[in-house]
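Q: How do we represent a protein-ligand complex in a form that can be generated token by token?
A: Start from the inputs.
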Amino acid sequence: MEFSGFRVIKEALTSHKGWKALWRDPAPQPDYDFVIVGGGGHGLATAYNLAKTYQKSRIAVLEKGWLGSGNIGRNTTIIRSNYLLPGNQPFYELSMKLWERQEQDLNFNSMVSQRGIINLFHTDAQRDAYRRRGNAMHLTGAGGTLLNQSDLRKLVPFLNFDNARFPIKGGLLQQRAGTARHDGVAWGYARAADKLGVDIIQNCEVTGFCIKKGKLLGVETTRGYIGAKKVGVSVAGSSSRIMAKAGIRLPIETHVLQAFVSEGLKPTIPNVITFGAGHFYVSQSDKGGLVFGGDIDGYNSYAQRGNLPVVEEVIESGMALMPMIGRAKLLRSWGGQVDMSMDGSPIIDKTHIDGLYFNGGWCYGGFKAVPAAGITFAHLLATDTPHDTAAAYRFDRFNRGALIDENGAGAQPNLH
Ligand SMILES: Cc1cc2nc3c(=O)[nH]c(=O)nc-3n(C[C@H](O)[C@H](O)[C@H](O)COP(=O)(O)OP(=O)(O)OC[C@H]3O[C@@H](n4cnc5c(N)ncnc54)[C@H](O)[C@@H]3O)c2cc1C
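Then emit the structure tokens for the protein with flavin-adenine dinucleotide bound:
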């Protein structure tokens, strides 16, 4: 079933009886060529690309809960490619380019909105760092504009420009950045993958791996044993728990990241804004809610709910940046599990076990990476060689000391 304006009108005139389920609900087969563990954005995009770009078949995605129950349905929907380092910038720019045509590729309205992101700076040193970042962005075509205070006063007049502690001096704007409807992204990939024959199997938790003489033969699941030639693990915040079942210890810590949404308001915030003097970022959803968040909860946890000190810190930062937020009522808050790597950058690589591949360590920024992670992880699974733009995301960088530390925070996962 293709989506189109014509289809919407036709269904409206026939009591919406013609819509079909977006994907099948197949029983697991005894074995597959490719098994992807995790039905989040990354797992679904990988399965889609295996089938579409690399023309592979006999592919299954195994999801322990329902599709979209993980971080893909919990994030704050920001997409951007405003990175500095050569290991990161081309990868995220590839992702941005894929976002720009994603709705056409998938024939699904995932509400990609290039409303721009502004990273505010509050000191001269910060301005120099953003100028450097902006120049790096221009090298890959990501684009970027340095705004001064008077530009910002016109664009986002509600900010607290004259706060004596955190005066806003300007910001780095990436106009091509923005937001996309997160669960729409999962549904779009699921529908497109299913159409290409991928079996999406929900309520199917992987509980172990069958490995003989260093070779992976299949996975144990709550729905029985499933044989597989190759298994790609894409389970975000559950990475260290799953990989431990294969005897692999990852350079990853898991933390909770919380997010918040206010009651619906009239259009107020035209783009995504990040505070440069505290942990706070905000955008406005198409329903009108202010969607905002801040830092991770500082302790390790696999919970999907956070703690009150972070709530206090995020709200305080919001008040410092834009005091008008104090007039809005908070509607909801929630948490997700984020897999924080030691240098803040992800891992897409083969493991030492023949047939077992890993994609994770996305910290709090893996939503924007979904299209590029999908294609690069599928490339690795299909060809056994790393994709050019993901070649830096290998395990051995931690042995070689070749870290990709965008924040310069050192081996401190909770600070990235
Ligand atoms: C509050 C919050 C805000 C965020 N905001 C942003 C943002 O604005 N921009 C951005 O780029 N990123 C953001 N992120 C990060 C982003 O959401 C994640 O990096 C990304 O979604 C992770 O990839 P995924 O979609 O595949 O993960 P998930 O959706 O978590 O997928 C992993 C899946 O694996 C499944 N699974 C786990 N264990 C098993 C098992 N044993 N067997 C089978 N399945 C299993 C889980 O149920 C889950 O569905 C945010 C995260 C959070 C929590």
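The mean pLDDT is 96. The first helix runs from residue 5 to 13.
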